[in-house]
Amino acid sequence: QVQLVESGGGVAQPGTSLRLSCAASAFNFRSHAMHWVRQAPGKGLDWVAVISKDGDRKYYADSVEGRFTISRDNSQNTLYLQMNSLRAEDTAVYYCARVPTAMLNYYFDYWGQGTLVTVSS
Amino acid sequence: EIVMTQSPATLSVSPGERATLSCRASQSVSSNLAWYQQKPGQGPRLLIYGASTRATGIPARFSGSGSGTEFTLTISSLQSEDFAVYYCQQYNNWPPGTFGPGTKVDIK
User: Fold this and answer.
1) Ordered DSSP codes for B2-71
2) Torsion angle, CA of B72/A60/B95/A44, rounded to 10 degrees?
3) Å from A118 to nearest chain B CA?
4) Are B97 and A47 a contacting pair at CB < 8 A?
5) Sheet holding A18-25: strands in order across?
6) pLDDT (tens digit, 9 = 90+) per residue, A69-84?
7) Nearest Cβ partner of A47 from B45, B96, B102?
8) What are the residues whose beta carbons fall under 8 Å from the beta carbon of A95, sequence distance 6 or more?
9) How far apart are the CA of B39 and the nearest CA of chain A, in angstroms?
10) Which helix (H) or strand (E) covers residue A99, if one does?
11) What would the pLDDT profile of A2-35 be if each residue is shown by its tens digit?
């Protein structure tokens, strides 16, 4: 059973940093592109970033470009999101999501349960 | 950049009735369209990909149709567990993860 388990969320002050993790299990992690998608309270789904299966290609939404960094450790089956210079508008539940292939732009066949990030002073 | 719209925003349906949800793309996305179901406190769940292919384990009461710019998700006979928010997503054009705003299906 494919599992994606996010962690690392919490309360952060504006301008500070947080690092999210997503532990993957029960599939060949290194064969799949992986994404972060977020959802502000009561709002819809908002794509954040994607990383290729080898980690050599990374793309970001304009709203986080230059502040967030996506990375992965294929030896540990873990996806990361380093979030710097946090803003109030980054407050959201952050989901990691798998695509079924190595393609960067595809549908998401598995999602985690999410981790809540609250940015507030 | 493609913009996805969904209608209606809220759909009130009685259990056992049919629900029809619409999704429209601002330009053609061919059949590269997925549908997701999300319940409170949970991550989204893939229902349909390729506009009409049910994902693994999805009941046959869920069906998808359409191509180009107009798509439909139909739930033939609503069960209690189907009351949720439904999102469409195009994956034909960059950027990834272009979602519609969602349709909430609630109990009439």
Assistant:
1) --EEEE-SEEEE-TTS-EEEEEEESS--TT-EEEEEE-TTS--EEEEETTTEEPTT--TTEEEEEETTEE
2) 20
3) 16
4) yes
5) A3-7, A18-25, A78-83, A68-73
6) 999 999 999 999 999 9
7) B96
8) A6, A36, A37, A38, A39, A111, A112, A113, A114, B43, B44
9) 11
10) none
11) 999 999 999 999 999 999 999 999 999 999 999 9
Residue type, B107: I
Q: Residue A105 corresponds to which tokens in the numbers above? A: 């732009």
Spatial separation of the C-alpha atoms in residues A93 and A29, rounded to whole Å: 23
pLDDT tens for A84-119 read 999 999 999 999 999 999 899 999 999 999 999 999
B2: nearest Cα among B105, B100, B104: B100
How is residue A6 written in tokens? 């996010």
